[in-house]
Specification:
By secondary structure, the chain is of the alpha+beta class. About 35% of the residues lie in helices and about 20% in strands. Strands 1, 2, 3, 4, 5, 6, 7, 8 and 9 form a nine-stranded antiparallel beta sheet that branches. The longest helix has 19 residues. The radius of gyration is 22 Å and the shape is elongated.
């Protein structure tokens, strides 16, 4: 199945089981993806986590039931997976701006999220800079953090934390990085920064994924105290941003366009394996970024 067929099959599964206690593993089971890879795929294409989408769908249906029926608030709270009427009410107010009790009144406006349907997004305005590369296996080492599948937005704070507590600089030195007089590091020969990042390099849990701020492991790398991960031989789809004045801002956009625009119509499928972030510095003080996504040629059904 192509990626759009799998996504739409997953959405149909959600609608058929919307009254159940749906987990990421349940939804991904009707696709060819692991829970982690499906969750990541959904996040970048839909712009929200799967759990957020399911929550919004349940609260949308709850609003319709309150408006059109006589269901008690506690009954709906239990039906849609809330521990109490109070927790249901807080979530309901956050989405709709009114309490469940007031939702029964005529003329009340709701924020309804209809079921998602995925189609190929046609974008002819901005060209994509991409290439396919084959790479042998290699190793990375660095600072690891385990995130919940709903915590992708917390990754930038992890980078800030590592800069503030000195662990980023420790990793840079352990990787053999050379500093300029202003404390910024010289890039490698290809212009890439010594420090990069890798995500999903080990078997994640159903609700978590590993993320590492890392460097390439070489024979003289000082890896004591750092996490070491093996990156297998892979075919990579590599997406490059335009040059900008600030580093680190283009990665989410690249992932979003790669997943939502390129994958559905590329003839490739997302393969099992890690995603990589690479950062570059240019002689004129600019920056650009790349994301590396493991792919495989799509097989005809």
């Amino acid at each position: 199945m192509d990626i759009l067929t799998q996504l739409n099959r997953a959405m149909a599964y959600i609608e058929a089981h919307i009254d159940d206690d749906l987990a990421l593993a349940d939804v991904s089971s009707v696709t060819a993806y692991s829970p982690y890879h499906f969750g990541r795929l959904f996040y970048y294409i839909a712009g929200m986590s799967l759990s957020e989408y399911i929550r919004k769908r349940k609260l949308s249906l709850a609003a319709m039931k309150l408006q059109n029926g006589s269901d008690k608030v506690i009954v709906l709270a239990v039906l849609y997976g809330y521990d109490s009427a109070d927790s249901f009410t807080r979530a309901f107010v956050k989405q709709h701006g009114v309490t469940p009790s007031n939702a029964r009144h005529s003329g009340v406006n709701f924020t309804i999220f209809p079921p998602l349907t995925f189609q190929i997004k046609i974008q002819g305005v901005q060209a994509m800079n991409w290439r396919i590369e084959e790479r042998e296996a290699f190793e990375v080492f660095g600072i690891e953090r385990i995130f919940g599948n709903d915590e992708t937005s917390k990754v930038p704070s992890f980078w800030d934390e590592c800069h503030q507590n000195g662990s980023y600089e420790k990793l840079f030195d352990a990787a053999g990085g050379v500093r300029k007089p202003n404390e910024h590091g010289y890039p490698l020969e290809d212009g890439s920064c010594v420090i990069r990042a890798v995500c999903g390099y080990s078997e994640p849990g159903d609700d978590t994924f590993p993320y590492m701020i890392c460097a390439l492991k070489k024979s003289d790398s000082k890896t004591d105290g750092f996490k070491v991960a093996q990156i297998p031989k892979t075919t990579w789809a590599v997406f490059r941003s335009d040059k900008t004045d600030h580093i680190g801002l283009e990665i989410p956009k690249l992932f979003n366009r790669a997943y939502s625009e390129w994958l559905p119509s590329s003839g490739y499928d997302k393969a099992i394996g890690p995603d990589i972030e690479v950062y570059y510095a240019t002689p004129d003080g600019k920056h650009f970024e790349e994301v590396w996504i493991p792919v495989k040629k799509r097989q005809d059904d």
